[in-house]
């Protein structure tokens, strides 16, 4: 039997927490940032790039892998770790957020501008009915399917299916959505407990019992409730009543003002058990990470470092720089003098700008290497600061150097 | 003063030669293959990927770097080596082939199909007049400009400007073109000798004397003459009369039948000095490399391993495989069981197929790593075989395993 999921709190500094999260594929030092490997690959990175940069755990998207190459195919390969060649911890989301993102919306990003798009998803009590972005095929993502799919993938941490509401939402909408998330959470948990109750020799696809490629898989519940403190409080309480291995805060970084995000995190984190890791989903800027650690968060994920790298935005301790800018055309300095990533040890801004303008693939690789290094190194420094009780000093320094330029 | 260009012949096996080519940035064991770094980057690779795969020398395209970011900008950065972060040997072409490729042609690859394109280049006695593919600006590439540009880039080996004729060409066309190449070769050489004669304190841009960022730069002349033995013979003789540091065979792999290519190489190589390396430009398949080593060639370059990798074609000792193919969807084996590249040590065909279909950037990186490893490892095995007088056995084995599947 693989290692069960465990969390040890090692130190605190104010509300900031330093911990250690054990999973079947290894230990994660927290606070931790998870690079996003949407389709089973962190874009532009290989396994050794991630290792070199200090990645401890990565996130993979169930929606994408379910559609292509298919969770059953991955299960036949022995599970996601073996398939993608990453033997460290993996967290999978439930697929709900991506399926939800296909839904009714204004023409814009991802749809042809000005052309009304047919709704690609419909939310009902049973689950989310969506059309594949690949071939238009119809699928119904239920809590049970989300749980089975993640069991087949065999991630170390699976997420319960939730409804991720956008911003703004009325209190009524937020309550209905939060209550549905509770019902879906209960069903997700029941399904996982049932799967766990199956005898070992039933761990074969028979049309009823899905393959579980990682018997030690943990499952996190998700707290919703938009920016309404009473709903968040109720959601935190009732989600814990269901009883998950740990808890996440969802439904933030979806367009709400930054203060509402910080306030909601500050109000919700203390309602979650102190002896379990707290995961803030889909956040955020480097400053957001520092600010949410200060409010008691342990685990983060975000596409920002990887996506922005591909758009030429590079993070530094003095704010981001856009490598496209003409001022870097003859700049022989590295992106950041003090950075120890391969990109900064080896290449100049002038060359990185050339690669970007020339649309060279290496631009993506080298920019992503740097940005992930910046994020992962920031978390390493945060961990040290908490250990040595100097987190508030790090936070102030970070704020002074970073916030105005990043947020402007 | 940097190391002068030198070549030592270490062993022969039939017409196959094992040698050592010294350049200001290091020694190249020959026969050698040069990965192509068109815009100052081998597509999808970083410097350490190339080193790990055993790349000894890379090729960069003068045409592309002249247009973007500009050879003067690169000279101000200290030259191409420093700019691109590669401190090993570099060969630059003259820019002629790319400028030539812009010329009158059938609608097809690189132009909008079915839409007649205005001629983008015109060849006159003075040089090649071409329009930039980036902004349409007009440029006149003369032998003097090609030489000055490469002096600014500071490659270890520069190429004289030649006219690269397509196939088929009449004997008359081939003679005119070959004779022009001789005149351009003379002018290229005269320009380099004049540059070399300038006092060291004139090695600064003053409007007249171009910057030379690599005082030890060598220059190769190019033998033309299409598939006509008498023209090749005359070109080989007269190019040597001009007196270059070494010689290349140009104008092959441009559409002629494979036997005509092999025959021309077999007839031309022995006409070149035995104590200088012989470079066959723009060739070819793995089998071509073996067959042309057997005919006395020492140095190769080709986009095939890198370009085909991006299209999903992977080379193996038993012929190429197309990773898109459905048969690899559940194939847990590496691309090649015996291959020691990072891709084969770490990833399965099933995962590489998934990355390719999902259009992940890592597909390009991992496929390119493998193909370059295959090419560079093939050359390393060829070098061993020549040293141990077993080249003919290697050639036969290679032929049996490889030729039918590759050429079919």
Written account of the structure:
The structure is a homodimer of 408-residue chains. Chain A is an alpha/beta fold and 408 residues long. Chain A folds into 2 domains: 6-103 and 124-301, TIM Barrel (Alpha-Beta Barrel); 309-403, no CATH class. Chain A has 15 helices and 17 strands. The first copy, chain A, has helices at residues 47-52, 62-67, 71-76, 80-84, 96-101, 143-153, 171-197, 229-242, 258-268, 286-293, 304-310, 342-346, 349-357, 361-387, 391-407; strands at residues 6-13, 16-23, 26-30, 32-34, 36-37, 58-60, 90-92, 121-123, 128-131, 138-141, 157-159, 218-223, 246-249, 278-280, 299-301, 313-314, 321-322. In chain A, a hairpin with a 2-residue loop joins strand 2 (16-23) and strand 3. In chain A, helix 7 (171-197) runs parallel beside helix 8 (229-242). The longest helix of chain A has 27 residues, at 171-197. Chain A is globular and about 60 Å long. In chain A, 54% of the residues are buried. Mean pLDDT of chain A is 92; it is low at 105-116. The interface between A and B is large, with 38 and 38 residues.
Query: What is the CATH class of the largest domain in chain A?
Result: Alpha Beta
- The neighbouring-strand order within the major sheet of chain A is 4-15-14-13-12-11-7-6-5
**What CATH architecture of the largest domain in chain A would you give?**
Alpha-Beta Barrel
Q: Under CATH, the topology of the largest domain in chain A is which?
A: TIM Barrel
How many structural domains are formed by the residues of chain A? 2
Q: Which blocks of ≥5 consecutive residues of chain A have pLDDT under 50?
A: 105-116
Instruction: Output mean pLDDT of chain A.
Output: 92
Percentage beta strand of chain A: 15-25%
The main sheet of chain A comes to:
9 strands, parallel
Largest interface: A-B, 38 and 38 residues
Number of helices of chain A: 15
CATH superfamily of the largest domain in chain A: Queuine tRNA-ribosyltransferase-like
Oligomer: homodimer
Terminal residue distance of chain A = 51 Å
The global form of chain A is globular
């Amino acid at each position: 039997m693989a290692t069960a999921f465990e969390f040890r709190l090692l130190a605190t500094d104010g509300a900031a927490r330093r911990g250690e999260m054990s999973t079947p594929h290894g230990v994660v030092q927290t606070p931790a940032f998870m690079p996003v490997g949407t389709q089973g690959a962190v874009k532009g990175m290989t396994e050794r790039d991630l290792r070199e940069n200090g990645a401890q755990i990565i996130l993979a998207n169930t929606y994408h892998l379910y559609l292509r190459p298919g969770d059953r195919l991955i299960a036949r390969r022995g599970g996601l770790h073996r398939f993608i060649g990453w033997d460290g911890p993996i967290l999978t989301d439930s697929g709900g957020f991506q399926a939800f993102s296909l839904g009714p919306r204004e023409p814009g990003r991802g749809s042809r501008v000005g052309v009304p798009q047919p709704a690609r998803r419909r939310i009902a009590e049973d689950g989310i009915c969506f059309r594949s972005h690949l071939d238009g095929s119809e699928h119904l993502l239920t809590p049970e399917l989300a749980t089975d799919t993640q069991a087949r993938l065999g991630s170390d941490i699976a997420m319960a299916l939730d409804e991720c509401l956008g911003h703004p939402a009325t209190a009524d909408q937020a309550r209905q959505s939060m209550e549905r998330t509770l019902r879906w959470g209960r069903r997700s948990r029941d399904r996982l407990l049932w799967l766990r109750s199956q005898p070992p020799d039933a761990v074969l696809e028979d049309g009823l019992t899905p393959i579980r490629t990682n018997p030690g898989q943990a499952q996190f519940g998700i707290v919703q409730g938009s920016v309404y403190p009473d709903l968040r409080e109720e959601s935190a309480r009732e989600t814990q009543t269901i009883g998950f291995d740990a808890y996440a805060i969802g439904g933030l970084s979806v367009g709400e003002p930054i203060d509402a995000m910080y306030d909601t995190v500050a109000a919700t984190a203390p309602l979650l058990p102190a002896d379990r890791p707290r995961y803030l989903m889909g956040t955020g800027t480097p400053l957001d990470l520092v600010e949410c650690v200060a409010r008691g968060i342990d685990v983060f994920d975000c596409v920002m470092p990887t996506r922005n790298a591909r758009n030429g935005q590079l993070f530094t301790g003095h704010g981001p720089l856009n490598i496209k800018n003409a001022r870097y055309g003859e700049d022989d300095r590295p992106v950041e003098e003090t950075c120890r990533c391969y990109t900064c040890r080896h290449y100049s801004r002038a060359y990185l700008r050339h690669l970007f303008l020339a649309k060279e693939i290496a631009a993506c690789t080298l920019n992503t290497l740097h940005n992930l290094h910046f994020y992962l190194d920031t978390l390493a420094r945060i961990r040290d600061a908490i250990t040595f009780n100097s987190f508030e000093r790090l936070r102030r320094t970070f704020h002074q150097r970073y916030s105005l330029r990043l947020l402007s």
